[in-house]
Write a structure and sequence with these properties.
It is a single chain. This protein is globular. β1, α2 and β2 form a beta-alpha-beta unit. The longest helix is centred in the middle third of the chain and has 26 residues. 49% of the residues lie in helices and 6% in strands. The protein is mainly alpha-helical. It has a four-stranded mixed β-sheet, with helices on one face. Belongs to the GST superfamily. Keywords: Oxidoreductase. It comes from Podospora pseudoanserina. Pfam families: GST_C_2, GST_N_2.
Length: 283
């Protein structure tokens, strides 16, 4: 299915709590986040900035309508794009790719939450699961959302694959503590998946049968191991969605419905959407 002409009419402003946050960070600052309120990749970087208690300037752009000035900063035209304070001799410094931006902020700033562990093994393990999130869960989320009847794979097939990858992720979570993925506390693994976890309701909204995660009342008849998986998932989900730095980055729910309709119909012209449609790795 060929995508239609790209819709560039996305609301130019965040709403709800996210609007409040953008206004708080609207003043000029040498550290600038070029962002889109609706973008889950942006949300990773945005939450990291909030967790690290870093001052910054939030600049809203429409990635479907890229200005020459923005493309001069990031020729790939992807968000988030982080512009750093000038380096030696005023040299401009720019970073993009959401996980790289998050890691840079965590390593550069000692304030706030430490998102990657100090221990080399635990840090490597965290990166391993961030990679799993990227390749299996995030890619699977788009494959699920962009399913249409003409696809060579079935909706039930993509649902089964996504849920199995989700089970794998949950089984690696720490059993103790406050609900986070790792025993060391809220970290980069949590940040890496939570924007898509918080958008699973969009799959429920657009796809027949929804994601397929058993509700509480449906778990009684499940085998014990399966029931524990979804109980642990619920504990993690409630923990991440209740975190103040996360709540502040969400716009009103109804705003996402229109944005993701083009994904649900596989009509999006985004780079992520095109990669998913063509069976390529996400950009």
């Amino acid at each position: 299915m060929a995508p239609q002409q790209v819709d560039t009419t996305i609301s130019p402003f965040a709403t709800g709590p996210a609007l409040v946050l953008t206004k708080q960070h609207s003043a000029d600052h040498p550290l600038k986040l070029y962002a889109g309120w609706f973008c889950p990749f942006v949300q990773r970087a945005w939450i990291t900035l909030q967790e690290k208690e870093i001052d910054y300037q939030y600049i809203e752009i429409n990635p479907y309508h890229k200005s020459p000035e923005f493309l001069a900063l990031n020729p790939r035209g992807l968000i988030p794009t982080l512009v750093l304070p000038p380096g030696e001799e005023g040299k401009q410094r720019v970073l993009y790719e959401s996980v790289i931006v998050c890691e840079y902020l965590d390593e550069q700033y000692n304030s706030g939450t430490k998102l990657l562990p100090w221990d080399p093994y635990e840090r490597a393990r965290a990166r391993l699961w961030v990679n799993f999130v990227e390749k299996k869960l995030v890619a699977g989320w788009y494959r699920f959302m962009q399913h249409t009847p003409d696809k060579p794979y079935s909706l039930e097939g993509v649902r089964k694959e996504f849920l199995e990858n989700l089970r794998t992720f949950v089984r690696e979570m720490d059993e103790e503590g406050e609900g986070w993925f790792s025993e060391g506390g809220f970290g980069l693994v949590d940040v890496s998946f939570l924007p898509w976890a918080g958008r699973l309701w969009l799959i429920d909204h657009y796809k027949e049968g929804g994601v397929g995660i058993p509700k509480r009342e449906e778990r009684e008849g499940l085998e014990e191991g399966e029931r524990k998986v979804w109980e642990r998932w619920e504990r993690w989900y409630e923990a991440i969605m209740g975190r103040e730095t996360v709540k502040g980055t969400w716009s009103e729910r109804e705003e996402y419905i229109g944005v993701y309709k083009r994904y649900a119909e596989d009509q999006t012209g985004s780079e992520v959407g095109k990669a998913t449609r063509e069976g390529r790795a996400l950009p």
